[in-house]
């Protein structure tokens, strides 16, 4: 090991590497192109995939993705005295029974929505008004700009308070006007504004412009125990597809609906769709590694072929070194070092080039709220793994010309013209 370190730090060692590469600079440069291109592809594609993943996580990072939305529609089969076409209405008790009896559920959030005429001073507009519980902010996090979201005291006291979107603020308030504590009219009823959330939040299901306490909504719109839909969030380890099937079957039993009626309840399984997207991202990363490493291997083989030609050209030189006492190991070591050096040098150029490409991608597509690729980058561990792969491939491919060099007898090498 000591001899190896001494060999690596000797000036003559690197002078020989330099002389070998500088004898045919164009060939040496072309030799490195394959490895440079492979690393460039690997860094560029992995960084782009990471940027897409970051963009996706920015949209859904605060959303409980292992969720399913269920709402009532109308029946398609007669059952227990009820005719086909019966309208199905979900209730708070249905939501409670689902939460208590279905395995794997973490939260069940009942929700309601209606359209409302919203007026302030001489400005007005029609917006969607949602009746919600504080739990909504856990499963569909609102990015609050000012104030707060609904709390349990608002629910218990049936307070007439409202959380508005940034868009409503722009339409009903003057620029930079304080809105907390101000009043707006929703269907001729005064509501105090207690918070404002940013536009651009991911809202699965109907859009949300105004949130008020669920209990207040039920009283104002005379909804009683009825709900518009429920958001069912599964535990992280739960199979959300099975949760959806179990929830629908229970709801059919509770509402006297035929077990095979597929129209009675509508649903949107966010967890299933999210799994498709994450599967696509993982597949893209796998494909990137496959293409990058395959290109690297092709480039390294090109280096091996060029070194074989170089060894052929240096046959007489190798014969002289052998005649002067150089052992086969020393000859092999020098040639392997040249292969590893060329490979790593080309790889470093590829890493630097890939880094610049990711910077350009971020400048072009990673700015603003609607960025497609957010912070396209690769981790230090990925770069380190790429370099390790280069060292291994460079060493293995260098052994081919190294064994070729030492297979020639010194006397025959000296006769070579």
Roughly how many Å apart are the termini? 37 Å
Beta-strand level of the residues, as a percent range? Answer: 15-25%
Mean pLDDT over all positions:
82
Biggest sheet layout = 6 strands, mixed, barrel
Q: Label the overall shape.
A: elongated
Describe the protein:
The chain has 417 residues and is an alpha+beta fold. Helix content is 55%, strand content 18%. The protein has a six-stranded mixed beta barrel with strand order 3-4-9-6-8-7. It has a two-stranded antiparallel ribbon with strand order 2-10. A hairpin with a 2-residue loop joins strand 3 and strand 4. The mean pLDDT is 82.
Question: What is the fold's blueprint, element by element?
Answer:
Layout: H1 2-8, H2 11-22, H3 25-60, E1 67-72, E2 90-91, H4 92-101, E3 105-120, E4 123-132, H5 136-139, E5 144-147, H6 152-157, E6 161-165, H7 166-172, E7 183-186, E8 189-197, E9 210-213, H8 214-220, E10 226-227, E11 229-234, H9 240-254, E12 265-269, H10 270-313, H11 315-323, H12 328-365, H13 380-406, H14 410-415
Helix pairs in contact: 2-12, 3-10, 3-12, 10-12, 10-13, 12-13
